[in-house]
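Sequence in, structure out. Go.
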Amino acid sequence: MNIAILGTGMVGRSIAAKLNELGHKVVMGTRNPENTLTKDDKDAYGNAPFKEWYGEYPQVGLQTFAEATRDSDLIFNCTGGQVSISVLESIGEDVLDGKVLIDVANPLDFSQGMPPSLSPVNTDSLGEQIQKRFPNLKVVKSLNTMNAQLMVNPDLVSGDHNVFICGNNESAKTLAREILVSFGWRDKLIIDLGAITNSRGTEMLLPIWLRLWGALGTAEFNFHIQMN
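Output:
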């Protein structure tokens, strides 16, 4: 499968590496590939420059957002939530129409410092905004409630724990589920919450997730829904 990863941060890198390992043709999208490959500084989270990671994955392509997306069968949105809409607008509706997009981003707002707030929140969500702005794009919200390493390796946390999906298109959710299973998620632990409006709920898990990270001193944890 031809898969485009929008964003070159830690989430995009983790997903790209896993998909490459699984044999997919992966192209990562960025605003300016040349600039992305020449940056020497670490990002805001202390991650190594992209070029250091990229040297380990010569099979992965690097193009502009639009070039990476044009021939894709599936798109992962791993951009910062505050710029996701503008990135997709730079690609264009003609390229996006009819494609499936798994939205991993969260609308974290760092304008007031740490911990970040969410914008939008409560009555709207990033997942909904993307679907509303691009009505012919098949948006599935998933993987946004855990850290990047756990997304593609659920065995990092022992025992049962869950990943959520939501979206308006059933065939798109079926594809997303298949990808999650290939990442190592057991089908019974994938919870379909329904329509894309439910991305409000998964995005609103981020404030408690961030505080748990601080309290536990590790990001290797996840939510488990226990039922009798």
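Check: The mean pLDDT is 95. The chain has one domain: 2-216.
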